[in-house]
Amino acid sequence: MADAARTQMAETVVSDKWVPEFDNGRAWRARLGFVLIASDHLIEEDTMRMAPEGVCVHFTRSHMPIGCTVENLAAMESGLAAAAADLMPEFEVPVVCYACTSGTAVMGEEAVIRELKRAHPHRQATTLLTGVIKGLRALSAQKIVLGTPYTDEVTSVVARYMKETGFELLNVQGLNLVYDKDITRVTPAYIREFAKAIDHPEADAIFLSCGGFRAIDVIDQIEQDTGKPVVTSNQGMMWNCLRMAGVQDQFGGYGRLLREH
Description:
Radius of gyration: 21 Å
Number of domains: 2
CATH architecture of the largest domain: 3-Layer(aba) Sandwich
Helix content: 40-55%
Order of helices and strands: HEHEHHEHHEHEHEHHEHEHH
Low-confidence stretches: none
Distance between the termini: 69 Å
Strand order of the largest sheet: 2-1-3-4
CATH class of the largest domain: Alpha Beta
Shape: globular
């Protein structure tokens, strides 16, 4: 009898009366896409934390040799288009962002955006560093200090890029770390003290670079300590992607940029 019952159930046909009811899903406001480096995990966590209700974040990864060096970062360019092509191809994703500060500085914004657009020409393409630059400008910051976890070589590339973009750097300091497994373990408390130590009396803002830095945890505290706005890689990137997608929410917890602009 049991075998007969299973056979009967397998032959059952769903009635035509079942017509699914649809809505716009959890991403009823926007989907944001991010192309990550192979070893990143912090950006996933940070963007999920900062995503307002109705905004979903999605991720793909581009191959990068282990270690944050200029050579390894440059090697990513050839794989960006393929990685972006795999990002939610069935869905509307209005904004796709390459989520690496130092990688953008090494390859350049134009090269990165060109590769992202090759995959999906109809999607808006941007970079993490583009968001930082736009965020600093929204805060009317001209003179800044720069803190990174990178080696001197990589820090110098980022500093030079910021200068070429029009900012005056009053202090530049790095922690000389090479591997993401170390960068992501730098404590927020240390990052807070590091930011205060590199501040300059004439600086308009503090820029803490690297998507692997747990800097969003202490943005508000650093701003309270120094009386200055703080832009971090993941905060600036998320702010820019939200605005590009037409999401204008302002909310607290992540500094003046997301609270007031």
